[in-house]
């Protein structure tokens, strides 16, 4: 992230700064893979089961059935949760090789672990899910799929959120990466950006040497006041840089899982103070390199 962005945020971050990223592989019982992902206090948990037997009414003859459920931090799943589940299904489907396991079921369950400060993630009808929590759910789902290693993948989906702070004295609104819940009242717009990272995609101008190309799969960026194509492009560019950081954390976690499964690896050292840190707890899951790209 650039060191020249102005420091105007409540927590002292630069406009293009992410909060501390945490990633834990939970090892939940009776699922094939599970992971907890968070930007700061905005955390989500996801589990993956499959391929498993599918009910006849859900069976697809040419590919696996992808079934996604989203659970709020409190209460029962409502309209907002079901709408977000449909969105995550659309986001994750391009990353999965579902034709490899026809007539089976792959089930992803996402659980919000925050959101009480904004109404997002607590099952309140019409309150929606804030963009950062949506991004955490996407990343937790991707990490759980990597942890399972049982679902063939053509790439990995990474997501971040972008917020918009309007200013009447500036020609352009200030865009900030990964807004925290405390920053939401200041925003005049926000959105989640989800990218597919895969080596089969064409290289873009933003592509780093050690990071595969990515393409934008989905965004719900919107604002309370009109914005133009230039602003949307700036938001996408900012989000892509943030998504590359998330991809790097997922790659590090996969490398650690591989080393852990052979008994030759040690937990990665934490980065220097002031930089983002990740957590990779012990896991017995193995990762099949032939089934996924990262």
From TrEMBL:
Primary localisation category: nucleus
GO biological process: nuclear mRNA surveillance; poly(A)-dependent snoRNA 3'-end processing; rRNA catabolic process; rRNA processing; U4 snRNA 3'-end processing
Keywords: Exosome, Nucleus, rRNA processing
Domain Exoribonuclease phosphorolytic: 18-149
Annotated GO MF terms: RNA binding
Entry keyword Cell wall biogenesis/degradation: no
Record has rRNA processing as a keyword: yes
Region: Disordered, residue numbers: 258-294
Gene Ontology cellular component terms for the protein in this record: cytoplasmic exosome (RNase complex); nuclear exosome (RNase complex); nucleolus
Protein name in UniProt: Exoribonuclease phosphorolytic domain-containing protein
